[in-house]
Amino acid sequence: MKFVLLYFLIVNCISYALMGIDKTKAKRHMHRISEKTLLIFAFFGGALGVLLGMYGFRHKTLHKKFTVCVPLFLLFHVALFIAAYRGGIL
């Protein structure tokens, strides 16, 4: 259980930081972090960090694939966590 929570904490912190870094790079017209990378982090546990980064940094909020996929990934993660907890896996 501790490992799973630590994983989610780390991946969400990284995801949030990536959103901030990408926003900064966008403002400075620098080489950006790919949308694919951001969505992969969201899919593999970092959806909350990406979602908080989207609205905290006002970044990618007009991109449909982010406004649809990221909340769906987050709902999936919550449902998976609840199912694992109820099933005695966690």
Features:
3 helices, 90 residues, mainly alpha
Textual characterization of the structure:
This protein is 79% helix and 0% strand. The protein starts with a helix and ends with a helix. The protein is built from three helices and no strands. The protein is mainly α and 90 residues long.
Topology:
Blueprint: H1 2-27, H2 35-56, H3 64-86
In short:
The protein has three helices and no strands. The chain is mainly α.
Average pLDDT rating: 95
List SSEs in N-to-C order: HHH
Radius of gyration: 14 Å
Number of strands: 0
Q: Give the distance, in angstroms, between the N- and C-terminal Cα atoms.
A: 5 Å
Helix segment count?
3
Assign the structural class, choosing from mainly alpha, mainly beta, alpha/beta, alpha+beta, or little secondary structure.
Answer: mainly alpha
Silhouette: elongated
User: Helical percent range?
Assistant: over 70%
Largest sheet: none
Q: pLDDT under 50 segments (min length 5)?
A: none
Beta-strand percentage range: under 5%
**Quaternary:** single chain
